[in-house]
């Protein structure tokens, strides 16, 4: 609120811009709108696009038609282009109108045909035909038309519904023939009846597999998609053995072509990933000294090294965007500080040059006065020369003092700028550390572990001091997740990391290897000392509860310990520690085993 009343629109706008600059948020329309309403003290208005996105997430995806309809809306929102909105709304409205008018007519016609006996079709055959239509078109928008068309087959020509197109009459005829066959099969032996039922189920499954599984995945291959659609239609018409043999042959040929395309796509994907690996490795070498960029390179390398997961990619994208944005702000400030420092050094040099030029000019005047003094014996002339000399000396002294003060001031500013640059550099380095820290537990992640191993192994080889490694795995972690939820599992991981950090020495390094596995690197520690440390840690853990799903819970862990040897690398020592850990699991859990125990239990 302003001092004399509510803030005006222009005051709110100015304050919004100030807040955006102070918070260092990206100057987007969404951020401006959010802060504007916050400054104005009003609830932020949700735009139509965000409201639609939330509503779409709540809609069911039970059928292909529902999924396609939702995908069309999401595509419209993603493209941020509303030109197709009218067409989409018109289709939705028309579809609703059609449903509201067709279904009463379909039910009325079905009831009329069900009771009509002039067609010679008994109730059992009608029931079989109806079930056939519902199986084939239960999720189809044209189900009402199918029911009217089916009912028209049971009615005489003068009683049929007019103005309703009889689509896919062949399908309905096939359905009646199947119903006839089912009725006849009722008098056949039980094995033949079972075979007939199994055949009907397999036929329906084949159609749905083509419709829901194969056809949507051939979106980029119209020829193959058209062939798959034709095969789907053939499954509804095929009755004789020769027709099914021809269908099987065509389906096999199609699947072979799809397999070839899939193999090519896998090869292309593999080639792209290999190319990306090569590019990132090259960039990583070029920017090895630039911590913030090399950290981002490592993050992308970690993602593409394992199985590609869309959720993981999106999370990494969001994290990298945040880090990149923060780093861009810090780096921009750092560049400004460097430019300011360069400008101050340039001013400092100009001042020194000015002092040199002034000293040279003063020296010239002194020499001129000396020459005039040697040529005259007139006291009045000598007095004038002394006065000029005193005046020039005073001016020179004033210039020197002023330049000295300027230089001292420039020196202070340069020192402040240098400290600011150092602080910005440290802040930039801290941002680059984000990719080395596990965001859930706050300990080093796999990348941080690799770097720590490189450092400690190098120190071990220089000094010859012992280096032990402990690999910890939470006992019954899956059961904990299943019984209390993943939030409790996350709390357990954070709890264990916290207890480990408090129990070990400052020189020990705690890392999260992945999942519920932690690795503790113990410099200057032999095998016996490492076992004592892990046992003490187990005792500490059993004394501390943590809250999971509003319940007090306890966890334990099994650990394997290995001692680094001359011929070891990271992989070999972790393998021995992992094997010892699994031996501890087999021996009853909540135990600490070493590589020595592995030799005793081959």
Shape: extended
How much is the average pLDDT? 75
Provide the helix percentage.
Answer: over 70%
Strand order of the largest sheet: 2-3-1-6-7
Largest sheet: 5 strands, mixed
Beta-strand fraction estimate: 5-15%
* Number of beta strands: 7
User: SSE string, helix = H, strand = E?
Assistant: HHHHHHHHHHHHHHHEHHEEHEEEHEH
Cα-to-Cα separation, first versus last residue = 77 Å
Low-confidence blocks of residues: 165-188
Radius of gyration: 41 Å
SS content category: alpha+beta
Q: What is the number of helices?
A: 20
Task: Name the features.
602 residues, alpha+beta, 5-stranded mixed sheet, two-stranded antiparallel ribbon, 20 helices, 6% strand
Q: Can you describe this structure?
A:
The protein is of the alpha+beta class. Helices cover 72% and strands 6% of the residues. Strands 2-3-1-6-7 form a 5-stranded mixed sheet, with helices on both faces. A two-stranded antiparallel sheet has the order 4-5. 18% of the residues are buried.
């Amino acid at each position: 609120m302003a001092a004399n009343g509510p803030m005006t629109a222009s005051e709110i706008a100015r304050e919004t811009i100030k807040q955006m600059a102070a918070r260092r948020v990206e100057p987007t329309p969404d951020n401006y709108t959010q802060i504007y309403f916050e400054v104005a003290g009003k609830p932020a208005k949700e735009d139509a696009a965000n409201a639609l996105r939330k509503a779409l997430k709540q809609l069911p995806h039970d059928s292909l038609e529902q999924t396609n309809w939702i995908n069309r809306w999401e595509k419209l929102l993603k493209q941020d282009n509303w030109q197709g909105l009218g067409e989409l709304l018109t289709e939705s409205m028309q579809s609703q109108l059609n449903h509201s008018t067709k279904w009463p007519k379909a039910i009325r016609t079905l009831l009329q045909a069900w009771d009509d006996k002039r067609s010679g079709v008994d109730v059992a055959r009608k029931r079989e035909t109806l079930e056939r239509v519902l199986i084939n078109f239960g999720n189809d928008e044209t189900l009402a038309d199918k029911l009217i068309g089916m009912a028209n087959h049971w009615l005489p020509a003068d009683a049929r519904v007019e103005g309703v197109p009889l689509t896919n009459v062949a399908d309905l005829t096939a359905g009646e023939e199947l119903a006839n066959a089912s009725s006849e099969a009722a008098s056949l032996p039980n094995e033949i009846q079972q075979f007939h039922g199994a055949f009907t189920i397999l036929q329906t499954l084949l159609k749905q597999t083509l419709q829901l599984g194969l056809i949507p995945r051939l979106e980029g291959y119209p020829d193959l998609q058209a062939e798959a659609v034709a095969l789907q239609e053939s499954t509804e018409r095929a009755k004789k053995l020769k027709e099914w043999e021809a269908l099987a042959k065509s389906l096999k040929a199609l699947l072979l072509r799809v397999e070839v395309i899939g193999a090519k796509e896998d090869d292309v994907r593999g080639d792209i990933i290999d190319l990306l690996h090569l590019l990132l490795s090259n960039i990583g070498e070029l920017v090895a000294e630039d911590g913030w960029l090399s950290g981002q390179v490592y993050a992308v390398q970690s993602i593409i090294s394992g199985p590609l997961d869309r959720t993981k990619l999106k999370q990494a994208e969001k994290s990298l965007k945040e880090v990149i944005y923060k780093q861009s702000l810090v780096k921009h400030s750092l560049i400004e500080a460097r430019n300011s420092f360069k400008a101050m050094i340039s001013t400092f040099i100009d001042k020194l040059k000015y002092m040199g030029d002034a000293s040279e000019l003063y020296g010239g005047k002194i020499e001129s006065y000396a020459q005039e003094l040697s040529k005259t014996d007139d006291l009045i002339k000598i007095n004038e020369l002394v006065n000029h000399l005193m005046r020039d000396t005073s001016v020179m002294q004033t210039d020197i003092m002023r330049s000295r003060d300027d230089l001292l001031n420039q020196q202070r500013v340069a020192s402040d700028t240098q400290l600011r640059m150092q602080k910005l550099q440290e802040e930039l380095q801290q941002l680059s550390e984000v990719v080395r820290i596990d965001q859930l537990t706050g300990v080093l992640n796999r990348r941080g572990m690799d770097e720590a191993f490189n450092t400690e192994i190098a120190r071990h080889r220089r000094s010859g001091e012992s280096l032990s490694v402990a690999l910890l795995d939470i006992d019954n972690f899956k059961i904990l997740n299943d019984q209390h939820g993943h939030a409790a599992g996350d709390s357990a991981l954070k709890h264990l990391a916290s207890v480990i950090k408090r129990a070990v020495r400052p020189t020990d390094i705690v890392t999260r290897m992945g999942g519920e596995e932690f690795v503790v690197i113990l410099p200057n520690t032999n095998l016996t000392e490492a076992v004592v440390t892990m046992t003490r840690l187990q005792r500490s853990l059993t004394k501390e509860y943590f809250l999971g799903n509003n319940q007090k819970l306890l966890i334990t862990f099994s650990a394997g310990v290995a001692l680094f040897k001359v011929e070891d690398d990271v992989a070999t020592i972790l393998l021995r520690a992992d094997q010892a850990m699994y031996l501890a699991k087999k021996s009853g859990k909540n135990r600490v085993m070493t590589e020595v125990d592995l030799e005793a239990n081959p």
